[in-house]
Fold:
Amino acid sequence: MKFEDLLLEIGGFGRFQILILFILCFPRINLPMHFLLHNFLAATPSHHCAIPHQEAFVNLTMEQVLLISIPREPDGTFRSCEMFSEPQFHLLLNSSLQPENKSIIQHCQHGWVYDHSQFTSTISTQWDLVCEQRGLNQATATFFFIGVTMGAVVFGYLSDRFGRKSMLLLSLVCSVIFGMLSAASVSYSMLAITRTLTGVALSGVSLIILPLGMEWVDIQHRTFSGILTSIFWSVGNMLLAMVAYLVREWHWLLVAVTGPCLLSIVCLWWVPESARWLIANGQVKRAHRHLLRCARMNGRKDFTISPELFPSFHLSQALRRMATDKKPGESYSYMSLFRTPVLRKISLCSGAVWFGVAFSYYGMSMNLTGFGLNMYLSQFVFGIIEIPAKMIVYVLVNRVGRRQSQAWALILTGLCIGANIIIPKPFTSLRSVVAIMGKAFSEAAFTTVYLYTSELYPTVLRQNGMGYTSFIARLGGALAPLVFLLDEVWRSLPEVTYCGVAVCCGSVAFLLPETLNVRLPEGIEDIE
Structure:
């Protein structure tokens, strides 16, 4: 007897499952508000070198002071990171005669002046993370994703060992604590540490939500539940744009995006532990209690095991029989993902796909100003375009299958990124359209990979598998913001890198098995 047979008896998609999915959507909304927060937390406004006051400047306007103190770019704008060692008063007579002597140009000596018209303060303006310190600014996102990477390993193992719900609660509580500590940071070092720890905590939320919901849902509604949960990521995307637009001070912005975790903690009271996990770990009585509650909520009050499914057994006896599928004392670890040939191939290929999905997704999501739109509008549009993308995914994964959908979504993401390398910068409308299409394909790839991976691994290893793939994905997420620094080597090198990785990793997806209309595997023998 399989767990799906029990779900058919108690109702595989009724009020009980809808309540669980609805509650789990709250923490899902909160995830992108932290994962994409770097766009606004570390935004770098226009800036130039601070010019110390001199007596000779008394009768000059601010524009004239800048003209004689700061060299210009070829397009006429003032340079952000350089100044003249001495005022060039002759430029007042002819500003077009920019000095050719490089020896009179030096790096900023007295700090920077920032344009505060868009942001009251960001971590860039707080600690002058510009010019030579620009790498530290980008590294803030990398530190966060390093934390997410570590959290994927920790919570993947712990949720398989101690249960989905308890670890989800722990990760939410830690998210609130470290999120608030980040908001109270008094130094860059403190912010880097607390954002890393926030990433560790939020990784548990990201990792557990989808499997916890899907393990209560029957085969027919598995795709729907995965897509529904994913849609609320897009809602969080749009909410981030609105919250960031209203809160322009980075301390309070961190408070605003962390606070909703408290609501998720309260709502988690009504979410039961996964009955699949309880049975797989021999906790039959708790599973029995949750299954009876599910049956009552779904209108199956007279529920018993039907004789055709499992003759001569009551419910509790049937659960014990299912629980014996896991040998006494048998334990699983991340090494179990590579011990058998089929599982090894799945793990290697899915790891490559996850890396490509995350690397290209965050590469696009963290380049809000590169497509000719206002950054708040870009964030909102990037969020709203994900919803129709998910709807299309819902149709495609059920018609053409998970494998084809996964591969082509990621390949087309790379091709859209590559197209924007070729399209000239003045064609802002066309670049914006291609970027939005690329973002839609990228989100389609991300939505599919969550659903696909949770179906590839057996119950006894599902969270270990999700933890491993999430670890690989967060490596991609951690590297994505650093790739922007390659524009100093060649302006288009970041886009070329994102494009190449997406196309290559998308091609690897063709090597994975199809899982459309296939029962969720319970043990390793079901995979092999």
Remarks:
- The longest strand covers residues 47-49.
- Residues 306-313 have pLDDT under 50 and may be disordered.
- DSSP finds 22 helices and four strands in the chain.
- The chain has three domains: 1-42+125-324, 47-114, 330-527.
